[in-house]
Amino acid sequence: MSFLTLAYFGFFPVAAVGYFFLPARGKNIWLLGCSWFFYLCAGAEYVPFLILTTLLTYLVGLRLAGRGGRGTLTAALAVFVAALGVFKYLGFGMSLVKDALALVGLDWSARVPKLLLPAGISFYFFTAMGYLIDVYRGRQEAERSFTRCALLLAFFPALLSGPIGRGRDLLPQFAQSHPFDYVALREGFVRFLWGACKKLLLADRLAVMVNTVFAGPEKFGAAQVVLAACAFSIQIYCDFSAYTDMALGSARAMGFTLAENFRTPYFARSIADFWRRWHMSLSTWFRDYLYIPLGGSRKGRGRTYLNLLIVFAVSGLWHGAAASFVVWGLLNGLYQVAGAVTKPGRTKVRRVLRLSEDTKLSALWQMGCVFVLSTVAWVFFQAGSVGGALAVFRNMVKPVLWDVGGLAAMGLDRKEAAVAGVALLALLGVDVWSLSERPCKRVATLPRAARWAVCLMLLLAAAVFGSYGTGYDAQSFIYFRF
């Protein structure tokens, strides 16, 4: 059940009204039942994995609060990592073994079993592991209520694609009774609408161009391929941040607050800053539970760089079982290492040239560099294979700049391109606005007439100009793959 389906539009009001009108004792039980039903709609075969994960997390948490120690935590984490490895990476691992044996002249072929990949498993596994590590470290009390522990993993707005929750943020909220709050409902509704507009007007429209060009880059001119690569950078931001907006909006309408996941990442002035703004719940998870335990920046410059590369390689592998994802992750790590190594030299050059880093021109230059570097890395993310990414890059430098057919050949006619252009300008305006205040919260506090005007405008824009029709799939959020 995706956010942009009639099923969800029927499910959410029932879930919210039931939660608000039930007595305090029944609220969490109702919310958990709704969350498990939401997951059931994704696939009945997935539910046992979520319930088993919940039982393991709950029991191990209690064990760690009692007599359990490092061994208990290690065993639990090993189970999660092993399960994730089998479900997501068995085929990839077997292909690596096959390639390694081929290098020494051995031919080995084994049938890769087709395993079920439960929806959202990467997200609720990471939530569970983070919770258990925090309990072991003494930063989080073990949750005695099974219902609240289950909600930590299964709360339906964040279940399928995050944000990745932290026990210390969510469990206290589940311990409270949230009465109906009209202001929170308005704010959540506006944020949900804005996310829907980003998805339907921009992300899904750009996806047509991106998928068309990446499927056969040799058919297009160099400028068209470059345009498609840039379009994917915008598409993935709009797609994932739209999902996050709708998740946070749904939760906020019921009185809950989920972690922010994006903060204008393409306004970043370095790749390191980009990753402090992009998919923040995952970035901070890797920082707290992998980078710092590896030594962080405490063991010398060389070790710091190595730790960065390890973290981003693992991050790439988390996104997908393919070499192209690992390359994408390593590129982002190498960008940061290169930035740290060259920083003293760049500072000296600016001093010699008397260039201030605080000027608008410098900021625009740095943001442009971040966009270009991230776009290069995103090509590996989207292409699906290293060979496919290299084919895209080869076609970026061929003599033909623009092949016959123009935008129409890329899947967008002039009207579609015009809608995408207007939506992109609106996105830019809202992102600039968000640097000074929270736009959705501000809209929710406008006078009634102005507030309804904005909401009706967003509804009409999504209904009239949204991407629908043949081939449209409401489940086609990019991060549903992970």
Topology overview:
Elements: H1 6-21, H2 24-42, H3 47-65, H4 70-103, H5 121-137, H6 146-154, H7 167-174, H8 182-215, H9 222-253, H10 271-277, H11 280-291, H12 301-319, H13 323-353, H14 360-383, H15 386-395, H16 406-409, H17 414-433, H18 439-444, H19 448-465
Helix pairs in contact: 1-2, 2-6, 3-4, 3-5, 3-6, 4-5, 6-7, 8-9, 8-17, 8-19, 9-14, 11-12, 12-13, 13-14, 14-15
Number of β-strand runs: 0
Low-confidence stretches: none
The profile of the biggest β sheet is: none
Indicate the multimeric state. Answer: single chain
Shape: globular
Mean pLDDT figure: 90
Instruction: Report the end-to-end length measured between terminal Cα atoms.
Output: 16 Å
Summarize the helix and strand pattern as letters: HHHHHHHHHHHHHHHHHHH
Q: How would you describe what is shown here?
A:
This protein is mainly α and about 475 residues long. It is built from 19 helices and no strands. α4 packs across α5 and α11 crosses α12. The radius of gyration is 24 Å and the shape is globular.
Q: Short summary of the structure?
A:
About 70% of the residues lie in helices and about 0% in strands.
Tags for this entry?
single chain; 482 residues; mainly alpha; 70% helix
